């Protein structure tokens, strides 16, 4: 099946869309020679101890990360009866988001991925029988993810990976609880939280005067404070709204204009909505179908892919947020911060429009820049073995790096597969591809 047709089918089908129910990708239908596999894939290396995995019919895969991607991959591996061990605090990044936050992504783009569509948002909604508003509140999404994890990935290890190295063709993992283990296959699914981007002007400022939006779940401590929020993406805009509602004196400063995602045709519903908005809902109409087809995206020339990426996720806020910002919060668009100096108890900002500000706190809504060389646990010699482009690992269609059996998903796969990797909606394709590859190789 041509890639485009297959991927479009995947986009619709993967989201439970009825229109292409018959267009399941051929790869997903291929029966795996699971029974051939019988080798135990994990051994403890501390004190040269070896531990066989009880009842493990296949080689064990270490999944580093228990967010939407890690959980979705583990669910797919489980379906194929491939033993996996999932490390990390479940949905940790989401637990550090503002408590009253709502999801920017729409309902159809917010399900975690299990291979049988048994644990979708719809299924949870039906079984929990609780009313839920749109946009989706974070609390509801976290309840859903907990339910997904309990059903689809019951065994998790609430410990982190502190070191990953590659020795004699196998991967050695050091865990923060002191254990070590060795596996054949590793999936790095650590999201982007550890890659929060701080512009040069803010790098050396003390934490009490400057922070990244990712550090805040509660904005009450900023009551009466003068806060400048930098940026114009969803996090910057929503943080500005929360600060304003908490009684702070807020100004939003952004290099570009403040944009809102209008989704005019989406609101019409019916055929127009179906035609113009794929369920994945990443990118503007026209580009969104392409962004929803990451395998196709990966085949485009890098320059074009990068341009599409930049356009598809340019800073903008969800339209439901607009009434909480417009007319309520002072905004200074098209201005850059040139210089920041400490003064009295706060900071003095010098802007590119020639003006200055005195503030108590600078909040950076400046996004995330995932980079291979800043993954804290990656052993330098392994890092050198991974081919990279623009700081990202270069990946084949199985999300596998130049080091065989080392996979990267989520934000770190963005260079190869485009902007959908930054969103929950990208988890299904990643999980399907990785699980297929692991099953084939076993
Ligand atoms: C404020 C905000 C709002 C967002 N809203 C949306 C939205 O509405 N819709 C949407 O689709 N996306 C949204 N996103 C993006 C969202 O973060 C991603 O879609 C999603 O979390 C990606 O899943 P992931 O599994 O790749 O990463 P994460 O959810 O970040 O999960 C990473 C996991 O890795 C674990 N981990 C990290 N380091 C280690 C280690 N060393 N060892 C073991 N485990 C480790 C963590 O504990 C965590 O469990 C938002 C992001 C932010 C910051």
Report the β-strand fraction as a percent range. 15-25%
Cross-sheet strand order for the largest sheet: 7-16-8-9-12
| Mean of all residue-level pLDDT scores | 89
CATH topology of the largest domain: FAD/NAD(P)-binding domain
Q: What is the molecular shape?
A: globular
Detail the poorly predicted runs. 14-58
**CATH level 1 name of the largest domain:** Alpha Beta
Distance between the termini: 25 Å
* CATH superfamily (homologous) name of the largest domain: FAD/NAD(P)-binding domain
- Judged by helices, strands and strand pairing, the structural class is alpha/beta
Helix content: 25-40%
Biggest pleated sheet: 5 strands, parallel
Bound molecules: flavin-adenine dinucleotide
Description:
- The protein is an alpha/beta fold and 442 residues long.
- It has two domains: 36-193 and 368-441, FAD/NAD(P)-binding domain (3-Layer(bba) Sandwich), CATH 3.50.50; 200-259 and 315-364, FAD/NAD(P)-binding domain (3-Layer(bba) Sandwich), CATH 3.50.50.60.
- The chain contains 16 helices and 19 strands.
- α3 packs parallel to α6 and α3 (68-79) crosses α16.
- The longest helix has 15 residues, at 138-152.
- The chain is globular and about 60 Å long.
- Flavin-adenine dinucleotide (FAD) is lined by residues 64-70, 87-89, 92-93, 97, 103-105, 110, 160-161, 189-191, 193, 214, 235, 377, 410, 422-425.
How are the SSEs placed, and which strands pair?
Layout: H1 3-14, H2 26-29, E1 61-64, H3 68-79, E2 84-87, H4 92-95, H5 121-128, H6 138-152, E3 161-167, E4 170-175, E5 180-183, E6 185-188, E7 210-212, E8 226-230, H7 234-245, E9 249-253, E10 260-261, H8 264-268, H9 270-276, H10 288-291, H11 294-297, H12 302-312, E11 317-318, H13 322-325, E12 330-332, E13 337-343, E14 346-351, E15 356-359, E16 361-364, H14 380-385, E17 388-389, E18 392-393, E19 406-408, H15 414-417, H16 427-441
Parallel strand pairs: 1-2, 1-6, 6-19, 7-16, 8-9, 8-16, 9-12, 10-11
Antiparallel strand pairs: 3-4, 4-5, 13-14, 14-15, 17-18
Helix pairs in contact: 3-6, 3-16
This protein binds flavin-adenine dinucleotide.
Flavin-adenine dinucleotide binds next to helix 3 and helix 4.
């Amino acid at each position: 099946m041509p890639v485009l047709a297959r991927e479009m089918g995947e986009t619709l089908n993967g989201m439970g869309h009825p229109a292409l129910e018959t267009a399941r990708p051929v790869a997903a239908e291929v029966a795996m020679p699971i029974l051939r596999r019988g080798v135990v894939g994990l051994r403890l290396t501390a004190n040269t101890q070896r531990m066989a995995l009880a009842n493990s019919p296949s080689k064990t895969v270490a999944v580093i990360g228990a967010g939407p991607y890690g959980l979705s991959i583990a669910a797919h591996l489980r379906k194929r009866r491939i033993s996996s061990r999932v490390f990390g605090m479940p949905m940790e990044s989401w637990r550090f988001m503002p408590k009253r936050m709502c999801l920017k992504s729409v309902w159809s783009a917010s399900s975690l991925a299990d291979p049988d569509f048994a644990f979708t948002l719809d299924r949870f909604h039906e079984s929990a029988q609780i009313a839920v508003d749109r946009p989706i509140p974070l609390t509801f999404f976290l309840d859903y993810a907990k339910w997904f994890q309990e059903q689809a990935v019951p065994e998790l290890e609430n410990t982190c990976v502190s070191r990953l190295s590659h020795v004699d063709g196998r991967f050695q993992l050091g865990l923060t609880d002191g254990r070590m283990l060795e596996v054949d296959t590793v999936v790095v699914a650590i999201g982007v939280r550890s890659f929060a981007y701080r512009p040069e002007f803010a790098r050396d400022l003390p934490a009490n005067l400057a922070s990244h939006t990712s550090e805040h779940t509660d904005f009450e401590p900023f009551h009466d404070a003068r806060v400048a929020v930098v940026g114009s993406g969803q996090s910057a805009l929503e943080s500005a709204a929360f600060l304003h509602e908490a009684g702070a004196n807020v100004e939003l400063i952004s290099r570009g204009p403040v944009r809102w995602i209008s989704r005019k045709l989406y609101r019409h519903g019916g055929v127009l909505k179906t035609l113009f908005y794929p369920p994945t809902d990443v990118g503007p109409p026209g580009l969104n179908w392409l962004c929803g087809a990451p395998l196709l995206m990966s085949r485009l020339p890098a320059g074009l892919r990068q341009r599409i990426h930049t356009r598809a996720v340019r800073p903008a806020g969800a339209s439901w947020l607009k009434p909480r910002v417009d007319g309520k919060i002072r905004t200074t668009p098209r201005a850059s911060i040139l210089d920041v100096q400490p003064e009295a108890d706060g900071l003095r900002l010098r802007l590119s429009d020639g003006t200055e500000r005195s503030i108590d706190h600078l909040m950076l809504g400046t996004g995330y820049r995932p980079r291979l060389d800043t993954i804290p646990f990656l052993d330098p010699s392994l890092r050198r073995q991974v081919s990279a482009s623009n700081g990202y690992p270069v990946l084949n269609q199985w999300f596998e790096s130049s080091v065989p059996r080392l996979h990267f998903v989520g934000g770190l796969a963005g260079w190869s597969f485009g902007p959908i990797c930054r969103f929950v909606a990208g988890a299904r394709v990643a999980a399907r591809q990785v699980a297929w590859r692991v099953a084939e190789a076993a």
